[in-house]
Amino acid sequence: MKRSKLFLPIFLIMLILPVTAWASPKRIISMTPVGTEILFALGQGDNIIGVTNFCDYPPEANKKPKMGDFAALNFESLMAMKTDLLLLQDMHMQFTPQLDRLKIPYIVMKQNTIDEICDSITRLGKICSAQDKAQKLVSGILADVKMVTSKVKGLNKPKVLLCVSRELSEKQINSFYVAGNNNFYGEMIALAGGENAVTEKKISYPQVSLEGLMTINPNVIIDLVGDKTFYHSKDKIDVDTIFNEKYLK
To answer: Are residues 130 and 30 in the same domain?
Structure first.
């Protein structure tokens, strides 16, 4: 099936929280795939010394040393590799006291709104002495948003279900984790002219069963999982048959 690239330019970006200033880092470890993509976009690929097992874009990321999965941190490895900048996401907040004790410089990143995203790119550009590239990246994102919103203005709003993960057993989908409304993906659905088929507002990524998906009955399903999940490879189940013509990957 042809892979859709429509949303990739927007999904690449994350919010970076304020940090203490330091010299331009030369030994960066990224524990978030999105952070890895941002670094490459800012021309920092040569300064990356470690990434997660799931950092596979751009292709050059596959050549970087793997630091394990992004849900946990190996402090011994971090110390041994003498990183001068560690990119984290908000799931790592529990580890920050230990990072502070070990004096490992880090940035905690999360994705929220377009405004926050553009600010985060600018901040990381300053930290990495890549202000010009950061400015061009921000300008490109804002131009893309303006173009998309102008094209969908006045059109009917399809009900969109965005799948961020799915649990599989042998030849069977057990459940999906989908984007609710209080997160970045929910905002992207609205900006792209859609209506989130998930009405949940309190839980960012609610879990939905296969039966629940059929009840929601979206007009469009966008699958961010790609060719593999954290559990099983896609070739164990015919997802195209389940999603039918609604499936957009």
So the answer is: yes
